[in-house]
Design brief:
The protein is mainly alpha-helical and 444 residues long. It has 15 helices and 2 strands.
């Protein structure tokens, strides 16, 4: 872990990876791909809330199938990341893994250009592979944070990464927006404009990813004489080692439990928002894209504002405030009227303000609570697995509740429960930390 913040060149290089890969998160996860998926799997009847599709002989609600596909991707990421982290720590080749998953995800995005209503399985496969590439790369990207930033600078550097990501992805989104809204000007259909957007995401992600990789420092290999089998098993052993160490780190342990629950809500909301707006609220595609752009614009000052709030109060206090706001937003989302475009815009403003802040602050809080160690990748692998398993639970819960109840609104209520549980655990972690600081003062 670094005690001195790296040069501006290195920090900017690190943040530029967020600039590149966030295009996937915006265009593929949040805007154009979900709307395109809903269009090619729907029946075209706006009065129908739940459309169904058949895959491998089973009928699914199309939005639930989308949720399940993403959940499968996150299961794979959760299983892979400990092995990959072990190899990266041992070989000191985090940059090579970052390059591999950046390339894998980029290729999957470009392949989406060929997805249409005739090849549903192909489209979902591309979605899963792109998701694996994006999230697997993040465990290595995140693990650079404690190596390039001193503890007192991690909130600021983490927020800068998210801010750069929002800025870069928004620029590409606007470019794609031009194609989707004015396809006739380019002699193409709306569907082809969407497919072209997927192609552009792959190129954008890979290109800026290479720029970032050139500026990131080389990792120091752990070395030793382990066999390949020991290295492969090492990742899970490292996870177990971190888990055992958490027993002597009660504040960090409670924070992770809290993160597990409130992250279910945050990530699921971000992953299902577009399909929720399209299917449940009947928001037109153009208005959905505008709403997502509003979220990106507001998220930039929001990330820095919440970082400032954490500095003025504490990380835990700032996180508790944002979680309370998320709980309120879930209630608003549940009550939104169908065809309520203006209300949806209002919700987008509120979501944008706290969305980036809670992610950036969660990452930097974890980095601050970590003990002094050279195994940063192992610790961030544990954080990554916690995050991915929580997303799996969140996505499966959202999709399953939708299928059995016939309404995504009921699924939103389940997300609110996750936020409430996370809030109460975080309150207990904050109380424990305050007691620990008080005891330290008394002892000195």
């Amino acid at each position: 872990m670094s005690t001195q913040t790296a040069s501006k060149k290195v920090i900017n290089g690190w943040a530029m990876y967020d600039w590149g890969n966030s295009a996937y998160n915006l265009v593929i996860t949040s805007t154009i791909f979900p709307a395109y998926y809903e269009a090619v799997t729907g029946d075209g009847n706006d009065k129908t809330i739940n459309d169904t599709v058949v895959l491998f002989g089973r009928e699914f609600v199309n939005t639930s199938l989308y949720n399940y596909a993403l959940a499968v991707a996150f299961i794979i990421v959760a299983l892979l990341s400990p092995i990959l982290s072990s190899i990266a720590d041992y070989k000191g080749n985090k940059k090579q893994f970052l390059f591999f998953f950046c390339t894998l995800g980029s290729i999957a995005c470009t392949a989406m250009y060929f997805y249409d209503k005739t090849n549903l399985a192909f489209g979902l496969a591309c979605l899963i592979i792109a998701c694996i590439g994006f999230w697997s790369s993040l465990v290595f990207y995140n693990s650079f944070l404690p190596e390039i930033a001193a503890p007192e600078d991690r909130d600021k550097v983490s927020a800068k990464g998210f801010a750069m990501g929002y800025t870069g992805s928004m620029i590409l989104q606007v470019i794609c927006f031009v194609f989707v809204l004015s396809p006739d000007s380019f002699g193409i259909t709306v569907g082809k404009a969407s497919q072209l957007s997927f192609l552009l995401v792959g190129i954008w992600w890979w290109g800026f990813g290479q720029f970032a990789l050139k500026r990131l420092p080389k990792s120091v290999p752990a070395g030793g004489s382990k066999s390949s089998k020991q290295i492969l098993a090492g990742g899970y052993k490292e996870l177990n080692k971190v888990w055992q160490q958490l027993k002597s780190l009660p504040v960090l342990r409670r924070f992770l439990f809290s993160f597990f629950f409130y992250n279910m809500g945050v990530q699921t909301v971000m992953l299902v928002a577009t399909l929720y707006g399209k299917s449940e609220l009947n928001i037109p595609t153009m208005n959905l894209i505008i709403a997502i752009l509003i979220i990106q614009l507001i998220a930039i000052p929001g990330a820095f504002t919440i970082a400032w709030l954490s500095k003025k109060t504490s990380n835990f206090t700032a996180l508790m405030i944002t979680i309370v706001l998320w709980i309120i937003l879930c209630v608003i989302g549940y009550l939104l009227p169908r065809d309520g475009i203006n209300e949806f815009y209002g919700l987008a403003v509120l979501v944008g303000f706290i969305m980036g802040g809670i992610q950036a602050l969660s990452r930097s809080t974890y980095a601050k609570l970590m003990p002094e160690t050279t195994d940063t990748t192992s610790y961030f692998s544990f954080y990554d697995v916690t995050e991915k398993v929580s997303i799996v639970v969140g996505m499966f819960s959202f999709g399953y509740i939708n299928e059995i109840s016939g309404s995504q609104r009921n699924s939103v209520l389940v997300l609110e429960i996750f936020f409430i549980i996370g809030l109460f655990i975080l309150i207990s972690a904050n109380q424990l930390q305050s007691k620990k600081k008080y005891n330290e003062i008394i002892q000195h």
